[in-house]
From TrEMBL:
The keyword Transferase applies. The lineage of its organism: Bacteria, Bacillati, Actinomycetota, Actinomycetes, Streptosporangiales. InterPro entries: Acyl_CoA_acyltransferase, GNAT_dom. Residues 1-189 form the N-acetyltransferase domain. The keyword Hydrolase does not apply. Keywords: Transferase. It comes from the Bacteria. This is GNAT superfamily N-acetyltransferase. Transmembrane segments: none annotated. Gene3D superfamilies: 3.40.630.30. One of its GO terms (molecular function) is acyltransferase activity, transferring groups other than amino-acyl groups.
Length: 245
């Protein structure tokens, strides 16, 4: 398939199509990360050049993805805490006129009917290229493993070590990165935090939570903690930091 990258902001005529494709298939709670919400508007304004679409010959969207620039010294200890923290660091660095050197690929998504054909790798390569053009010499990503929701009780630090018969990661999305030569660095334990009232969480999960405690919610990478006394529900999701070559 012949696909060409375009900057998302350059094609407002495709934003409705993008919204339909990219908001489908996610559990509702994923849209309620308050830390990310605080920064996303500025991310779009500051880093429009790092947000891309892949289009087919008929201007139909095949994939999309975006990233943010951070400063990183290459050590595990200096990595952002995860997805949320990468957005925060990128915005704060930019507002302080600091110099970024590392592209954090924050999200990549392939149109559902085109998944399983290797398009994600193409999307990641175009995002890495956009980073290179912006002077970002390293590429990292807090990967949200596709299969982890089926193992919500397993710590991410264990899950990320699981391999299939071929020795590659068991998780399909980690496998895509692995095939591209990326290496896993560590678990990002607090990558995304989704917090709301108990009523909000009941609505997002489509489940009543009659007592305080830990609940398994479809699509969540870890159990959701419900605290009825303080009227808080919280899901802390770990991701996996990978570094591309
Ligand atoms: C994760 C995602 C980007 C991967 O894109 P992709 O182009 O399908 O990736 P690949 O073609 O490299 O496929 C990777 C593996 O997943 C498998 N796979 C992909 N889509 C699949 C599907 N719908 N059902 C079952 N397996 C699937 C592929 O067979 C492949 O497995 P293999 O390693 O055994 O060959 C894509 O599935 C997606 O958009 N998912 C929803 C959004 C998301 O989770 N994004 C990541 C977090 S931001």
């Amino acid at each position: 398939m012949d696909l060409r990258p375009v900057v998302f902001a350059d094609r407002p005529d495709l934003h409705e199509q993008a919204n339909t494709i990219f908001s489908a298939g996610w559990p509702e709670f994923i849209f309620h990360d308050r830390i990310a919400d605080r920064y996303l508007e500025r991310v779009q304004a500051f880093f429009a050049h790092l947000s891309l679409l892949l289009l087919d010959a008929d201007d139909q969207i095949a994939a999309g993805g975006w990233g943010v620039p951070v400063g990183w010294d290459g050590t595990i200890g200096d990595l952002p805490g995860g997805y949320d923290d990468a957005l925060r660091q990128a915005v704060e660095l930019r507002e302080a006129n600091g110099r970024a050197d590392t592209m954090v690929i924050a999200a990549a998504q392939v149109r559902p009917d085109l998944q399983g054909q290797g398009l994600a790798a193409l999307m990641l390569l175009h995002l890495a290229d956009a980073g290179t053009r912006a002077g970002l010499t390293r590429v990292i990503a807090p990967v949200r493993p596709a299969l982890k929701a089926r193992y919500p009780l397993t710590p991410m630090a264990r899950f990320m070590t699981w391999t299939g018969p071929d020795g590659a990661p068991l998780d399909p999305w980690l496998r895509t990165h692995h095939r591209m030569g990326a290496r896993m660095l560590c678990a990002a334990e607090r990558s995304m935090v989704m917090q709301g009232s108990v009523a909000e969480w009941e609505e997002w999960a489509g489940l009543p939570f009659p007592e305080s405690g830990r609940y398994i919610v479809p699509g969540a990478l870890a159990p959701v903690m419900i605290d009825r006394e303080h009227d808080v529900g919280e899901l802390v999701e770990a991701n996996v930091w990978v570094q591309h070559r």
